[in-house]
Amino acid sequence: MLANKTVVFLGAGSMAEAMISGMVEADIVPREQIIVSNRSNKERLKELNGKYGVRGLTREELACEEADLFILAMKPKDAEAALDSIKDELQPHQALLSVLAGITTDYMEERLGTGNQVIRVMPNTSSMIGESATAIAPGKYTRMDTVMDAKELLRSIGEVFVLEEDQMDLFTGIAGSGPAYFYYLMEHIEKTAKENGMDPEAARKMGAQTILGAAKMMLSQEDSPEELRKKVTSPNGTTQAGLEALHEYGGGEAISQAVKSAANRSRELSEQLKKAMV
Predict the structure, then answer these.
(1) What is the pTM assigned to this prediction?
(2) How many CB atoms lie within 10 A of CB 158?
(3) Number of domains observed in the structure of the chain
(4) Which end of the chain is more exposed for a tag (fewer CB within 10 A), N or C?
């Protein structure tokens, strides 16, 4: 479906590179049909061309009519200028995907002002290894075939979930910030192992493999997390003792609060950004 499409990245930072790497590795779009653009950093464009074989063009060199899909991948504060720079050149068949935190579909549609197709995209940092949990929220003018193209494109960096816009902040709390929760868990596993005489590097590998195995079990089984937990919890056994300690010290409530706090902060940042751009 994407073999004949041209994808243009507006922005050449780490997220753009992670997505380009995934697209090239998965051979979803021919590398010569991937264009990466920035305002003036030709060295960065040359670097991406050398690593992935994609075309690098400054904004002045870019011909917008070439694109089928644009991907906004600069800093959120630069979104306004980027949208203004292309809005007079966008055609009805072209679509705009934004991976910028806090930039809503309503804002993009209002800024463009021409009924263009826009999709808000929220990947997480695991996109760097092709294991992102990525959410997409289509705007009100976006066609279903464009949503399918976006899903196919973003599967090159992991799993894709289509959400309503009002669920994006909660998704941020679960998956956008989620990797940090597991890293925090691993910090404490490693610290406890070291304090009790175990090699911390060995403990890190043990813990990481345990998390990986549990995640694969959840993805391959129909059982709920609660059912899986009960299956490994013998009465008066070691797992029950560990779970009782988690309950006593507020482990479950801490996880719930982490998700809700991150979601609330995502809403706050979005509102702040919206006010700054008025």
Answers:
(1) 0.88
(2) 18
(3) 2
(4) C
